[in-house]
Design goal:
Radius of gyration: 17 Å
Shape: globular
InterPro entries: Aldolase_TIM, BKACE
CATH topology: TIM Barrel
Largest sheet: 8 strands, parallel, barrel
Strand order of the largest sheet: 1-2-3-4-5-6-7-8
Pfam family, one: BKACE
CATH class: Alpha Beta
Protein name: 3-keto-5-aminohexanoate cleavage protein
Organism: Benzoatithermus flavus
Oligomer: single chain
Number of domains: 1
Order of helices and strands: EHEHEHHEHEHEHEHEH
């Protein structure tokens, strides 16, 4: 069980005053998050214009800066299809990385996900297989991609808590029926962040928090930065 810090995601600059989009800001936030108890990092690399990017220059510069300040900390990045908006270009970008993340997340609901999973695996990058629905889990099983995954991300977007929990139940049921025993990282989004941190702790799963998933603390107040969210999650995991 770990707490992973998800630093920025696809959030716009005005989502939070401390949303890190420059390399310097990402590194500063990452250092604070690790000090607060984050075992790993997940981030969306940003280009010089602040937009999400998989360009080798942006990925290499970000990873180099992070590893200089946080040697030994596992670093993961997103490969979301919306970042490059072309599956062939996305694969070409991955091929061009000189510095490799420890792992990268792949959304199984995307048409190009199987090729991305295979390309990451070929390059020696761990795969976080992102499942947002039972259909995604069934696709993972059907295509035989689970053996290539470092872990399973059960990532729930529904905002109604009952529906969100039911969606997680359905995903986990598909994995159980298929005998998939990969580590699970469970996380919610906005309204469901903290209920899923508590559920992850109860069930022995890992969790993640950060400005990608939500900006509020368990008491409903806005967090000062990613480190405050991480500290609250670590405390909750220990209590539960």
């Amino acid at each position: 069980m770990i707490v992973q810090a998800c630093l920025n995601g696809a959030r716009p600059r005005d989502f939070h005053p401390r949303l890190p989009v420059t390399v310097a800001a990402i590194v500063a936030d990452a250092v604070e998050a690790v000090a607060a108890g984050a075992a790993e990092l997940h981030l969306h690399v940003r280009g010089a214009d602040g937009a999400e990017s998989l360009a080798p220059a942006a990925v290499d510069a970000t990873l180099a800066a992070l590893r200089d300040r946080l040697p030994g900390t596992l670093i993961g990045i997103s490969t979301g299809a919306w970042i490059e908006q072309d599956d062939d270009r996305r694969l070409a970008m991955i091929d061009g990385w000189r510095l490799l993340p420890d792992h990268a997340s792949v959304n199984l609901g995307e048409a190009g996900a199987p090729a991305v999973v295979e390309r990451l695996h070929r390059r020696g990058i761990g795969v976080e297989a992102g499942l947002a629905s039972a259909a995604d889990a069934e696709r993972l099983v059907r295509l035989g991609l689970a053996p290539l995954a470092l872990r399973i991300l059960v990532e729930i977007e529904e905002q109604a808590l009952d529906a969100a929990m039911a969606s997680a139940d359905a995903i986990l049921a598909v994995l159980a029926r298929a005998g998939i025993r990969k580590p699970v990282l469970l996380h919610g989004f906005d309204a469901t962040v903290w209920p899923f941190v508590a559920r992850a702790a109860r069930q022995g799963f890992s969790a993640r928090v950060g400005l990608e998933d939500g900006a509020t603390l368990p008491d409903g107040t806005t967090a000062a930065a990613n480190a405050a969210l991480v500290a609250a999650a670590v405390a909750m995991m220990r209590r539960v």
